[in-house]
Amino acid sequence: MMEKYDLHCHSTASDGALSPKKLVLRAREQGVTVLALTDHDTIDGLDEAQQTATELGIRFISGIELSTTWENKCFHVVGLDIDPCHPALLDGIRTQQGIRAERARKIAWKLEKKRIPGAYEAVKAAAGTGMITRSHFADFLVTNHFVDSQQHAFDKYLGRGKPAYVATVWADLQQAIDWIKTSGGIAVLAHPLRYNLSGNWMTRALTAFKNAGGQGMEVVTGRSSVDDIQRSHFLAQKFQLFASQGSDFHTPKDPWVELGRLAELPYGSRPVWDLFD
To answer: What string of H, E and C letters represents the secondary structure of 244-275?
Structure first.
């Protein structure tokens, strides 16, 4: 039987709509046989997802998605096949969570200045024990009728240059990759084309990523066009990076991004799963 890999998705432990258990159940419904849960800056959903995957006969890969800063730009690095109990990784996660909590307070303060009170208490309650993300603020703005969609929330309030945007300095790219690799994991650059980099900046970024110990990059994502895949494949080959694929699934309400609904890796790719233990 052909394996069906999805190595990037999110649960309620960060900004996903489904609990880890329901996420894995949905992955099985979509025919996924190898699944990585990669919540933002947290490992809180991994135990529940692992248990469910074991019951369903799905191979589960412990993962995380870390926000990083390089040259004043934010890049997301997925860690695959990590040891979620490794002390260095846990210390890094605590650092990231502190940054995330401070950002949330600043966003809420900026919204309050725009006569939108109560945001922090609401998003904290919505996130529960999970990470507060900008998506939680977007949901708050939709629910309270300040905007009519998540995208509208980012366009009007939360996106770069908007009234409630908070510039955030995350962990250094090298530091985040070190946390992943020290914990036995594989560092993969998430959705590389989403950063809208020029050719020169892309070369610089991938060179820095590779030099810092990065081993892979996402070649196929849930939103990849045929041209996107070919460009990403070319870059992976050029920089000798292993190719990964992941839907970046967040919610069943998005009809364009579904667990396991992914094109095949291009011929000649070196699949990142060749590195799994």
So the answer is: EEECCECCCCCCCCCCCCCCCCCCCCCEHHHH
Return the SS3 of 186: strand
Kindly indicate the confidence band of residue 128, based on its pLDDT and cuts at 50, 70 and 90: confident
Distances 58 to 4, 236, 272 between C-alpha atoms, Å = 10, 28, 18
Top pLDDT among 129 and 88 is at 88
Q: For residue 132, name the pLDDT band (cuts at 50, 70, 90).
A: confident
Is residue 131 over pLDDT 90?
no
Radius of gyration of the chain (CA): 18
Residues 6 or more apart in contact with residue 229 via CB below 8 angstroms: 219, 220, 263, 266
Cα gap 256→239, rounded to integer Å: 30
Q: How many CB atoms lie within 10 A of CB 253?
A: 8
Residue 127 CB: number of other CB atoms within 10 A?
19
Packing angle of the helix pair 87-113, 119-127 (nearest 10 deg):
150
Residue with tokens 């969570």: 97
Distance CA 237, CA 208 (A): 16
Picking from 22, 35, 1, 54, the residue whose alpha carbon sits closest to that of residue 247 is 35
